[in-house]
Amino acid sequence: MSELTLEDQIKELLVERLFLDLEPSQIEKDTHLSEYGVDSFLMLELVVAMEEIFAVHFEPADITAQALKTVSSLATLIRSKKHQQQ
Which tens digits make up the pLDDT trace of 57-67? Predict the structure, then answer.
């Protein structure tokens, strides 16, 4: 089995942690997460899960509407935090 991309890992996390009634493959990386029913409460759950799973720490300034908009923007945020930690 090939290693999952960061985007694929985020899709799986969305489905598993937020109990979305979707398959990860149904989530498009550039579609607004709100279209999948992800609200601000669920987004908070997702941020906590991403910190845990990807071993990153988000500052309050990192948590913007733009950064939390899509799977692609979340992946960009995680990559930038991982790069800062190196």
Answer: 999 999 999 99
